[in-house]
Amino acid sequence: MRETGPVVRTFVAVPVDGPMLCRSLAAAQAELGRAGGRVRWVPPHQFHYTLKFLGEIPASRVEAARAAVAEAVVGVAPFSLAVAGVGAFPRPDAARVIWAGCGAGREALVALAERVERALVAAGFPPEPRPFSPHLTLGRVAQGGLTAGLAAAVEAARDRAFGTLPVRAVVLYRSDLRPYGPIYTPLATFPLAGEPPRDR
Hints:
Elements: E1 7-15, H1 19-33, E2 39-41, E3 48-58, H2 62-72, E4 79-89, E5 97-102, H3 106-122, E6 136-141, H4 148-156, E7 161-167, E8 169-176, E9 183-191
Antiparallel strand pairs: 1-3, 1-8, 2-6, 4-5, 4-7, 5-6, 8-9
Helix pairs in contact: 2-3
């Protein structure tokens, strides 16, 4: 029987903090913004790498999600992630989402996302239909808001390096949509404190 009642829009992510890294990413947003187009840029305090988007789930299932993520991070050690590269989905000349990618440490981030995915699916949450593509959203292009100058600027920044992110925790967030943009509220934080997981 399908659950009814209040729902909570949720996702699991690695938060991006550190003043220097956020300033570097914000500087790239400003440069891209000067290329023209209409983009809703993500505020620096909301930068993150999404590991799993759960969408709207019954409020009664938040504890199950929390327990699943807590299980997923057991034994995972902190690691460093190079924040690097600029790209767009589906591609720069048809951009809907402009993002920053990652370099060294990408494999560890992918492995962490896979652990979170497996734990949540085992807890009864729907599997992600698309392969995990690690990225940090910088901005969302409005319909009809892409210009040739913006597409060229994204392409020109494809090899840009921003700095290193120490990945020390995973967060389960609540997302409340507002006309001026979403509000993200941490529901639970899971520190990484173990050893790297071993193949069995």
